[in-house]
C-alpha cells in the first residue's frame, strides 16, 4: 500500500535551517509529483511546495518562496524540504502528499512531522 | 486567511444529515474534500467535485456550482467527527493549491 513517512522535524531557533525528509513506498515514486503541505497550531492546511516527477518543475507558496527549497532523490524514493531562515510562523506539522494528477488534488498523505521554531 | 471560505463548525446528531459549504472557488477548477482527525494523516474524501475514492462510503456526497461547492454527510456516525477541508487550485494566485479554513464537525 502507499506509504509516506516524514522525518526531520524538531525544535529550531529562529533564523536557523532544517531539512525534512519524506520516504515513500508502495508505488512508483518517480512517476508522481509530490507536495509539502503544513498545518500551523490551531490553523488550517496550507500548501507549501510541489516538485514534478523528474525533479525539474518546482512551485512554491508565496509565504515560503526564497526561503524553502524542495527536492527529490528518485533513486532513494525520498522527497526533501530544505527550510532556511526559519520564522516563528513556520512552526507547523509538515505533511508530504502525493499528487492526484490533472485534477490537482492530493490522494495520499503522510502522518506529518512537527517543526517548532522557538528560541 | 484562507482563500476558500468554510463555516468554522457544524454539528448534528447521529443519523442526521449535515452539509459543509465552500465558497470562493475558481469556477474553472474542481473542488476536493479531505477528512482530518488531528494527529493522523489527512484522508482524501472526495475528488473532482463529486467522486468518492475507493473505500469512502456513499453517505458522503459532493457538489459544485459556479464558485461554490458543498460536502454532504448523511446518516451521521460518531467516527465522522473530524475536521473537513475543501481544496482547489487557483491559477490567478501564482499557480497555487488552495484550501478552505476547515470545518469542525461535531456529532452530538
Q: Would you write up a description of this structure?
A:
The complex is a heterodimer of chains A (119) and B (108). Chain A has 119 residues and is mainly β. The mean pLDDT of chain A is 97. In chain A, strands 2, 4, 5, 6, 9, 10 and 11 form a seven-stranded mixed β-sheet that branches. Chain A has no helices and eleven strands. Chain B has 108 residues and is mostly beta strands. In chain B, strands 1, 3, 4, 7, 8 and 9 form a six-stranded mixed β-sheet that branches. Chain B has a three-stranded antiparallel β-sheet with strand order 2-6-5, with no helix packed on it. In chain B, β5 and β6 (68-73) form a beta hairpin. Chain B is globular, with a radius of gyration of 13 Å. The mean pLDDT of chain B is 94. At the A-B interface, β5 and β10 of A face β3, β7 and β8 of B.
Biggest pleated-sheet summary of chain A: 7 strands, mixed
Query: What global shape of chain A is seen?
Result: globular
Q: What is the residue-averaged pLDDT of chain B?
A: 94
Termini separation of chain B comes to 28 Å
- How many beta-strand segments of chain A? 11
The secondary-structure element order of chain B is EEEEEEEEE
> What is the structural class of chain B?
mainly beta
Give the number of DSSP strands of chain B. Answer: 9
- Low-confidence segments of chain B: none
| Count of discrete alpha- or pi-helical segments spanning 4 or more residues of chain B | 0
Amino acid at each position: 500500500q502507499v506509504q509516506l513517512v516524514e522525518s526531520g522535524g524538531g525544535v529550531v531557533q529562529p533564523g536557523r535551517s532544517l531539512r525534512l525528509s519524506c520516504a515513500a513506498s508502495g508505488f512508483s515514486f518517480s512517476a508522481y509529483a509530490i507536495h509539502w503541505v503544513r498545518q500551523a497550531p490551531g490553523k488550517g492546511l496550507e500548501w507549501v511546495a510541489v516538485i514534478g516527477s523528474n525533479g525539474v518543475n518546482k512551485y512554491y507558496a508565496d509565504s515560503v518562496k526564497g526561503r524553502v527549497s524542495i527536492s527529490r532523490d528518485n533513486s532513494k524514493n525520498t522527497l526533501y524540504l530544505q527550510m532556511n531562515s526559519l520564522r516563528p510562523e513556520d512552526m507547523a506539522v509538515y505533511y508530504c502528499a502525493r499528487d492526484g494528477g490533472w485534477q490537482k488534488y492530493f490522494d495520499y498523505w503522510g502522518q506529518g512531522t512537527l517543526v517548532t521554531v522557538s528560541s | 486567511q484562507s482563500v476558500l471560505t468554510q463555516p468554522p463548525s457544524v454539528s448534528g446528531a447521529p443519523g442526521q444529515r449535515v452539509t459543509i459549504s465552500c465558497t470562493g472557488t475558481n469556477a474553472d477548477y474542481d473542488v476536493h474534500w479531505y477528512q482530518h482527525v488531528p494527529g493522523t494523516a489527512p484522508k482524501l474524501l472526495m475528488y473532482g467535485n463529486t467522486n468518492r475514492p475507493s473505500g469512502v462510503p456513499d453517505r458522503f456526497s459532493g457538489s459544485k456550482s459556479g464558485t461554490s461547492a458543498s460536502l454532504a454527510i448523511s446518516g451521521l456516525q460518531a467516527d465522522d467527527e473530524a475536521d473537513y477541508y475543501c481544496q482547489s487550485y487557483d491559477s490567478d494566485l501564482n499557480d497555487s493549491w488552495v484550501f478552505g479554513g476547515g470545518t469542525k464537525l461535531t456529532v452530538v
